[in-house]
Amino acid sequence: MKEFSYRGFMLDSARHFIPMEDLRKLIAAARICGMNRMHWHLTDDQGWRIEIRKYPQLTAVGAFRGRSVFGEASRTENNSGFYTQEDIREIVRFAGENGMEVIPEIEIPGHASAMLAACPEAGCRRTAYGPEGEEKAGEPWQYAVKTSGGIFPNLLCAGKPEAVRLMEDILDEVMELFPSKMIHIGGDEAMKIHWRRCPDCRARMRREGLQSEDELQRSLVLEIGAYLAEKGRETIVWNDVLSGGTLPPHFIVQQWAQGEEATRVFLAGGGRVIHSDTRVMYFDYPYGRIDVKKIWQSPQIPDWAKGYEDQLLGTECPLWTERVTNLERASFLLFPRLAAVGLKASGAGNLPWEEFRSAVRNIENLIEETGLKGAPESYWEMTEEAAKADVQAEHDRIYSAEALVFEKKEIKLIKLEKTERLMEEIGIPEPLARQVGDYALRE
Ligand code: ACM
Ligand code: ZN
Fold first, then answer.
1. Is residue 48 in some structural domain?
2. Predicted local distance difference test score (pLDDT) of residue 434
3. Is the CB of residue 256 below 6 angstroms from any atom belonging to ligand 1?
4. Domain count along the chain
């Protein structure tokens, strides 16, 4: 077993705001688990949490939302709030004292509804199609800070120079606040419905000879990555970006779901990767899916990284917070699973189970001395029956009757995205394909 240099966890302050004091407690406990990187997910459809001096509307609009539906767990609790630049500096300082580097994530082009609610001019223009396929300006897209989970079609426009400029201005302030060499710019789950209809995005594709919107996303990432590289920073993206073609080796890819073949190609080109497989590392998932024993059993080096061990920087465990509204729930989900990942990342994963378990126990005891409480031992090695019940309970929390309405909308959009890709593949003329899609987009 090797020791990873990157031993990370991720906190999502967008879906639910995590108060400063809670952040400090979680960072201190993660340190006890052997973590040395905190990836801070600061922006998403449901919230913009970082003060940007040049664009105060990002927080004035993007940091607040009303009653929310994330399944049964959430109504109004911790929906709103943001970190001032002073707060951010304080967290970076506190984390540094705890041996933890903080890596910020400003997510584009998708998961950008809160950003676009504040800065709608950074979104796409929209083309409408007449009965003969003739093109004209369509109704503008409407943006709002989202009050439900899921994925949304709202993307930063890749074709307007001023939209790219907005992102660069934001990153200028982010770089002032975060000394970390690595900056995360997101890139997951960007359905391209808006880009397909945008005259500016299409003009950029023509100008650059790009064959698909996925290639356009790659081009945008290359542009922002070059901007960060000029200033001595490295860019992390979620592995979805590789759908548009591989990236040069100065990028870092975070592998979370699917696309492992493309990630292997990226590794073959010399790229570096962070391992965050949903099946082992996603700590918003219930213990019934990922218990401590499963972490112990999982291979330290996934198959797709074999032969490129030195380019696998390490592991990171995200805690997405759609249904995590308070410190108690965050602690329950993170600990002691993070201790188990920390043990494995430090090379101690090949201990026999009973010894591993008692090493986890020792770490959990230290965490409990700080006042936080992880999941009880009954969750560490679950029986099949208990695991099934736990998964069902989580399912019921997610798919409350109220949340199903939003779920249905999301499924429709995902189907539309697939259908538009298929229509292109089989050669349906663009204006006709867009009209079909527009029909499905009507409320
Ligand atoms: C992700 O979980 N959407 C990166
Ligand atoms: Zn556009």
1. yes
2. 94
3. yes
4. 1
